[in-house]
Amino acid sequence: MSLLTPWSGFFLLLGVVPPLLLLYFLKLRRKTLPVSSTLLWFSSTADLQANSPFQRLRRNILLLLQLIILLLLVLAIMQPRMEGPRGAGGRTVLLIDRSGSMTATDESLSGLSRLEEALEEARTTVDRLHPGGLFASGDGETMIISFGESAEIVQPFTNSRAQLLAAIDRIEPSHGTSRLTEALQLARVYSINTDPDNPDTPAIVPAHLELFSDGRLIDLDGQVLRGETLTFHRIGDDQSANLSVLQLAADRPWESPAEIEVFCSLGNFSGQARRVDVQLSVDGVVRSIQEVEISAAQDNLPGRRSLVFTPFRLSRGAVIEVALLGDDALSTDDTAVLIVPPPRQLEVLLVSEDRQLMSRLLGGFGLSKLDVMTPGQWSQRDPLETWDVVVFEGSSPDMTARMPTLTLGSSPSSDLLKVYGRQDESQVALQAMESHPVMEHVDVNSLFVQESDSIQPSESVEVLLEGDRSPLVLSWEENGSVHVHVAFDPIQSTWPYDPSFVAFLYNAIDWLGHSNEALVQQQSMPGSMLNVRVAAGGQEARWIRPDGSSRLVVADAEGLVSLGPVDLSGLHVLRTDGDEGLSMRRSVLFPSIHESGIRPADSITLGQESVVATSGAARGYVPLWPWAIGASLLILMLEWWIWSSRMGGRRMPVKSITAASP
Question: Strand 448-449 vs strand 427-432: parallel, antiparallel, or unpaired?
């Protein structure tokens, strides 16, 4: 217990207690009167002895009660207070962490997640601050802010217990990182005094902050308390172990570009090495399960293990998922998803001198657009107009176009190709690079070429088809684009009469047109926006989140649907009327580096102040002077009752005394 004004009470004590004692010490003044008889001397002597000064005080209950009343009043003047649970009064802000690590389920929480435990403690705090009832204090106000990747005011300042409990029930989990900066800024902005009737009130009234979190806050550097007081409610225990899929990616092996190779990085955030089964699925179909061992975490860094799965062929859009099989404290980061988009339709330009064969073949490939130009029109084209692939038949291309090209017959002017002239001798195809996507399913065993260019390629050029005299089909990259060149005119060979020519042409257009596309769709992070374009503006679509919940959204006038900011990691699907939703999928990756280390902090540091975690109610100073005044009033009533019972209903007897004359 401490006293705010001890000296005021001390001087008051010196001023009131001695006069009270003197009232009981000093005798009464009497007049000297002559009496006619000495029979009254005995009673007068006894009365004089009872009122003589400075004798020993006898037991007197009234004096004791009066002393107690004075002492209690003096104590109230000293304003005593003691530390205890913080009750109602003032402004309180509840800061509730709903980040990814708060979805962990610790053994000590009996099946509840950390967020659910934090919400339960927040409800208990509301009951303490706003207990309700006839004699409850109503001068305190409370605000609730939830935060993760960003902060949100769930309930502004109010003294309504029902509104606060309803706001707590509206808080939902998220999978983003835990950032406290914005939550502190909101708490300070809403603590500004806007009451014009109280101009003397400080413009900013520092509030008491109660933080419900596991302490995995990534932005504490540079944060300070500016007059606020903070209570840190630590959620979670130290015994929980966690494994995580840290990263997931895919690429095409250089030796087999027609296949997809998936690799992932796994993390172990516990203090012991652990073994786990890792499962690879494509569109929900399991393709591989491997058992791996991940080393233990050291110096607050997770143990890591990289894993590469066996390459496989995939020629369509798909969902690739890697999952850890088994249970741990945080199941949210046990799964990661990649989206392989379906091949898009291409826009192709054919530059040819009015040959019908190539235009007919290309027209049957289901292209988005097929344009045809003569070499003269090509030289006069708009330089800003582009196509996915440009096919040159019988003419030399301009390599500065910076677009993927397929040249048939006439060799392009490139520093990577040395053309020594035209050889009139016929030749046959010997060997094709069957692993390359352009030559996949292309049978060249019966290919016979009448004449071709004699070319010497540089080391960076791949020979896709080798003839018995010179290369027949080549591929290279130049000016940021890929190119394929056929060193002979197909009309002067047996190829147009062979179905393999159609297969080659289709493979070349498809590979060239999608060469600059990303193999997999870029993964988003929690807190970002997902933009998806649908068929028409104003169209309704249903957004299905990873937890199974859904929401109806409407596209804008340009057909763009904006989803978010997204809170949950995993697979997000957008479905429209009559659409299966398979072509409109987005992947959100869990921020494992920041949120998968789920060991709660024992304290947090803001500036120079370190706040130690507590498991109980918020601590504060409870004033005791109101209780002292209340007790003094009760004792005063008791003292009045005792005096009344002794003196109030009794009359002093009157004696008649006759004095004799001397």
Answer: antiparallel
Domains, the chain, in order of start with CATH, read 2-83+625-648 (no CATH), 87-239+599-617 (3.40.50.410), 243-343 (2.60.40.10), 347-513 (3.40.50.880), 530-588 (no CATH)
Residues 205-218 pLDDT 10s: 688 999 999 999 99
CA proximity to 397, closest of 386, 387, 407: 407
Using alpha carbons only, what angle is made at residue 74 by residues 71 and 77, rounded to the nearest 5 degrees?
155
For residue 506, the surrounding DSSP H or E stretch is helix 499-513
Cα 218 to chain centroid, rounded? 11
Distance CA 448, CA 500 (A): 13
User: pLDDT tens digits for 267-301?
Assistant: 999 889 999 999 999 999 999 999 999 999 988 88
* Secondary-structure percent of the chain, ordered helix, strand, coil, rounded to 5: 25, 30, 45
* 178's tokens: 């835990």
What Å distances lie between residue 572 and 521, 563, 581, CA to CA? 13, 10, 10
Query: 629-635 — which CB contacts under 8 Å span 24+ positions?
Result: 629/72, 629/73, 629/76, 631/72, 632/68, 632/69, 632/72, 632/73, 632/76, 635/65, 635/68, 635/69, 635/72
φ, ψ dihedrals at 13, nearest 5°:
-65, -40
CA–CA gap between residue 514 and residue 517 (Å, rounded):
5
Coil vs helix vs strand at 383: coil
Contact 122, 144 (CB under 8 A): yes
Residues of the chain with pLDDT under 70: 1-17, 20-60, 62-63, 79, 81-89, 132-139, 193-205, 254-255, 257, 398-401, 578-583, 615-626, 640, 643-644, 646-662
SS3 of residue 421 by DSSP: strand
Distance between CA atoms of 149 and 126, rounded to whole angstroms?
A: 25
User: How many other C-beta atoms are found inside a 10 Å radius of the C-beta of residue 59?
Assistant: 6
Token digits for 606?
A: 């803001």
Tokens (6 digits) for 35: 């009496």
Secondary structure (3-state) at 56: coil
Run of H or E including 482 = strand 481-486
Q: Which residues are paired to 349 by β-bridges?
A: 371, 390
Distances (CA, A) of 350 to 174, 378, 379, 405, 503: 51, 10, 13, 10, 18
> Strands 530-533 and 619-623, how do they pair?
unpaired
At residue 537, what is the residue type?
G
pLDDT the model gives residue 109: 78
CA distance 492 to 500: 16
Q: How does 97-131 read in b/e, with b if 16+ C-beta sit within 10 Å?
A: bbbbbbbbbbeebeeebbbbbbbebbeebbeebbe
Which of these, 81, 79, 69, 70, lies nearest to 12 by C-alpha position?
70
* Count of beta carbons in the 10 Å neighbourhood of residue 280: 20
- Give one word for 132, left, alpha or beta, with left for phi > 0 and alpha for psi -120 to 50: left
Torsion of CA 408, 409, 412, 417, to 10 degrees: 110
Exposed, middle or buried: residue 347 (CB in 10 Å: 0-12, 13-18, 19+)?
middle
